[in-house]
Known about the structure:
Radius of gyration: 24 Å
CATH architecture: Sandwich
Strand order of the largest sheet: 4-5-6-9
Amino acid sequence: MLPNTNASSRRAPRRDRPPARLPWAFLLTGLLGLGAGGCATGDVAMLATIAGGEQIRVPLGRNGAELTNEAGVQINSATFTLNADKKIVFAFEFTDSQHRALRSVRVADVSDEVTPALVDSASPAPTATGQWRGESAPLELSDPRLGWMATVSNTVRVFRFTLTFVDGQTLVLHQGTLYPAVFKSAVRQSLGQKY
């Protein structure tokens, strides 16, 4: 026989029990969530010191560093992935709303005093919609440019996009990217490291 599921057969909740107390961890999580809500407005930022001692403001949002949008150019991506050979490949992408012809695009990691170019394209070919995408050569985890991956703390890296247009004008944009410690640990472990 199936149980009766109509509303009249259900028990009424007991009203003599005190309300359940919320654990402190739950309250703390809620408060942190409220605090992080302010990040969506772009009011929260980190200052990152780059090569030459210049400080760059990196606005933070709910999903990490906000993407740069300046002078008609929107940075769409500045991150990395693992390829099939378990090597790190950086991928960079932007869209130029003005569809200007490009002479060159250079993307360098300027987070340290040495500023290695990850992409240096002398013949960039944006799409008809003004979108450009470039990738670095595959990098081993032991590559000196990836020394920061070995640290066990959160890391902010700043990438400098230098766009040179056919008319000779140059536009320089900085894009910060936040790499949480747990993300770096997962990458290291997937590459055979123990931490």
